[in-house]
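Two quick folds needed for the group meeting slides. Do the first one here.
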Amino acid sequence: MHRVLVVDDALFMRQIIKDIVCDLGLIVCGEAENGKQALDKACELQPDIITMDITMPIMNGLESLKRMRVCGVNSKIIMCSAMHQNEIVMEALRSGADDFIMKPFKEENLKETIQKLSLK
């Protein structure tokens, strides 16, 4: 059973993503509202998949992603952001993100991406 860490500074968005994860039969092992919490929880919980926003307080998602990869977090990471300029997407992918979903996203798109990564 795959375990998912949900990271977003907006409570309503975390709830939407958690509902999608549960619909897929996966386990939400934790959630975080900023990049620092995400880094700490990812290192502690070692989830299979992380969904992460980019624009967050304290530490943004890109910085958190980079630090996760340096400290050996091997989770599949899906960046979910309204910031979808090509340079942001490319930086996320170069930094170790496994996929990028633009907000607002369709539920089916996120489900397909999570399912695809859970098979790898």
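Then this one, please, same format:
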Amino acid sequence: MKKYVKNNVYWVGKVDWELKTFHGDDYSTHKGSTYNSYLIQEEKTVLIDTVWLPFAKEYVKNLSSEVDLRKIDLIIANHGEVDHSGALPELMKHIPDKPIYCTANAVKSLKGQYHKDWNFHIVKTGDKISIGNGKELIFVEMTMLHWPDSMATYLSGDNILFSNDAFGQHFANEKLFNDQADRCDLFNEAIKYYANILTPFSSTLKKKLAEISSFNLPIDIIATSHGVIWRDNPSQIIEKYAQWSDDYRENQITIVYDTMWNGTKILAESIAHGIEKADPKVTIKIYNLSKSDENDLITEVFKSKTVIIGSPTVSNSILHSVAGFIHFMKGLKFKGKKAAAFGCYGWSGESVKTLNEMMSSAGFEIIDEGLKNQWNPDNNGQKTAVEFGEKIALL
């Protein structure tokens, strides 16, 4: 069922309430998601993006009940990733010759995924298409936000920016718009989306925001590809992106650890006590990595000024869960964040040295040589951990 967006623009996507992971199992989606597709019915009928492959047949059936598929004049593919383009093969069975407007890289992506030579029309930033009634579609390449093929499409007259993955959230909601959603849930999902997907491209994003601003295009609505549509003060999410892209951090210290026999856990909690003693105003969060969702932890790391990470020594190294998490953080290219390490050991005690090396390689500033404790922490060991926390809080 199509839903009204503005004037002759409608949402024709899919709400996926049951989605729990995305990008395979790499991204947790506790609140589901949406796959937003849009239909513009001016003198020309335009379809912007489709939905994920599992919903392709349902999507085409629903779309055909809203519009004669043969009357679609053109299709815009803002991004070739399968959650946006997955229904294209099913749709193109019915209208195989209809033109698909996309970037040159999107042609490579779509051909590579579906092995079809559809009627592609390559566009670049500034290209325009008149769709009648004095309205135009204007294309803006969004390279590496977050794929090389990404672009956004602007509809003049209605002042709608179809932003694709930028400004989105994995957030299922029966209501279309941001002013109809729970604000806390919305912004929690928006920052999680940015932290886990867009952080590596922050410098590119800052330039793109400046470029879009230089066009002086009025934006009344930002129609994303996932989650709710920003119609109430859409500039608020642009402002958030500007903040998040600028080496973002809050007054927060996050402790992340894994443990074997709870010795490293005791250190983590003692360090937290020390931080609180030294700086009662700082937000302190502690997570046992093996009992926590890694994407939620990445969001906390994104918000933090300092990350303290712990592991016992195992096989002259660290637990593989911690090694994997540091590798995850390295790929996200965090900047402007400090780090320190801690851990228990029985015999050789290499974990802190390994943690320091890995965190440094991941782009964190190592602010202390770290805390090592042999065997389980006794009262003196816990006191030392408290003092370590006090010291880290002031660095």
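Slide caption for protein two: The CA atoms of residues 147 and 311 lie 34 Å apart.
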